[in-house]
Amino acid sequence: MTQFSNTNSGGKSADPYRDANLDKEATLAEKIEGLSEFMSKCQFCMMTTHDSKTNLLVSRCMSLAAKEAGGIDLLFHTNTESGKTNELKEDSNINISFLNSSGEWASVSGRANIITDRGLVKQHYSRQLKAWLGDLGDGVHDGSENDPRIGIIRVKMITAHYAISRKNVVGRVAEVAQGAVTGKPAAVNKLREIDESEVQNWRSSH
């Protein structure tokens, strides 16, 4: 892949923020469990799919319904007749991103499939879904756990990266202020990366 560069930093790292914040000490278990906990606390996320008709990316807010495989695979309720299911049928590549009010974030890249198995739907069904699907009054499409419009989007993680704070608010402000004066990169986050081989390793034991 051709890389973009706009300057020559003379052998020095041109991305000192990443160098200062990358968490190289965390074990795989710590990285996965930290990510899983963060996603659960956020609950709401942005799901990004590819619209093959326009060749554009499309995002919408989703609520995390459950996790599988030790926290790496994500489940979401969906209306099977919605646009996102059409997009995923054409292109299963997907991104799920989380963000909280403190600026901590996570990005999960993976592939998705649409599950219509009633057993899985009933296992994760919530009565609140009726508010989103409505009752069409035909005795079938009633927003219940038996409504055939209700499906599950299962996102199987391929890679992920996320950043969680390593200091409290006062500490982060002080670190950023110091960096603005001295030019020293602010070490305020634990930036963690989970590559494809790590995901496969985790999946094999969960």
UniProtKB/TrEMBL annotation:
Organism: Cercophora scortea
Segments forming domain General stress protein FMN-binding split barrel: 31-184
Alphabetical list of Pfam families matching this protein: Pyrid_ox_like (PF16242)
Protein name, UniProt field: BLI-3 blue-light-inducible Bli-3 protein
InterPro entries from the UniProt entry: Split_barrel_FMN-bd, Stress-Dev_Protein, YdaG_split_barrel_FMN-bd
PANTHER family, A to Z: PROTEIN BLI-3
Domain of life according to the entry: Eukaryota
Matches recorded under Gene3D superfamilies: Electron Transport, Fmn-binding Protein, Chain A
